[in-house]
Fold:
Amino acid sequence: MDRLNEYSHNSFDLQSLLNSFPGDLEFKQIFSDIGEQMQQNATRTSLHSVEDYSSVDVKSVWDDVRLHLRRFLVNRLESHNEINNSQQRVELKNQCMKQLLLLYPESEVLIKYQNIQKRLLAKFLQNSFPSCNRDSDLEVIAHGYQSTMPMLYSMIKEDFNILCEILAPSSIVQFIKETYLDTVTEEMAKILENFCELQLKENAVSGVKTSKSCSKHSGTVHALVSSACPQKPRRSSLSLDELKFLSQLTQSFLKLESNIQELLEETFLLLQMPRNSPGILEKSNREAMVEKRTANETNISPEPLLPVKEATLLEFGWRNAFKDITLSMAHCISAAIEGFSTKVLQQEQTERTSASSYIMNLVNVPKACLEGHIFAEEEQPKQFCSDIMEKLDTMLPLALACRDDSLQEIRGNLVEACCKVATAVLERLQERGRDIPSGAPLKNLHILLSTAAYVSQHFTHYDNLMRETTKKPVFLVPVQRYQEFINTLQFQVTDYCVRVCATSILQDAESHHWDDYKAFYEV
Structure:
């Protein structure tokens, strides 16, 4: 890009020139008068008149002035990115953009500003996102995305505030999509591509080791291929940690997508955009907008107005980056979740058999594990239950991201795995409930009740989150079964308390007579 030292005018002269500019309406009138004058001069020429090149000279001089002003303003836009004060940065950039729009068409100004912001974004992403290789820690990469998304959203919001005063909603949405969303999607696609390549290499190495083992066992490689180890289509196997990594990436993009959509809808709520006329904008309670220069604008008939939701609809294609790994995720997610829950339940069973009197241990869970609900001390769940539900919470974004056919299989398998896990946990709770009070203390009954309520609330929360895309409850059966179990436990607790109270009051442990007027016997 040309720098200020490439032309003779210094910044002080150009700034003074810009400050002396008339207002927007006056500028429009000046441009209109100049155009009419040049057109009149062109029509007055005749064969016998002396050729006058003054209009050509004026146009050439004006083009030179515009070029110098554009270079100056573009350099100012780049320098404003270094300002720390966000509000001041927005105001200065907004001023520069308005001045550029007075000199050049909107399309050229947007291309220039888009190139500036793309370079800034590329530098930001390069410094923020770690590369994905064999030695990379998936947790570090996921954390990098989670910490970067709020900063990226602040950049988008800043540009939105700059452009909303000078552009139509459709132009703003297109600018944000092409400048930020498409760029971030490309970066994530590169990371997932490297991730898939590493998975294929690891599976290939594992396959070679398995082939050698089978070859030694069968004696020949030919027998291995033909009978012992028949070839199957290659499909990368994902561990629970790798699925967690993909789910964390998904959660980051879901949050960014939701924040941007809310920003657009809130800001465009008072806007009215005519259909098929993206350059015309009507706004209430704001200053008049700079209209697009369109041919025959006065001849356009009134068009029906777009709804706000349609006018601000974003096409964020980050889900397309997961297409290459969708089949592997759908294939592995059920086995990974069921395998983890089975392991936890087996560990709990081992603890139960090794103890003569088994008392369930409580564990502190995050107070904000469910939105809008804080668990009291007595509602803290049992250890094995909190571990399992924590894993389900981690995988939930994979189901929430399913809005097209390519990801439906992932959600279906995840829902199926969650139902199986819920059934297994419920059966274990029912089994432990039958041990009370003969083989386990009464304290376990209260723990079972709080655990069942905890799991039921989780699956109810899942239903509420997924209802937007599924349009129907997907965990209705598990929730009903847990509610029935909770009702049974509540009856047992209430019945036990009533019997204890009745025994304590009515039974005279010291063989006293009922004519003894002690306070203990007064009811």
Summary: Residues 324-506 form one domain.
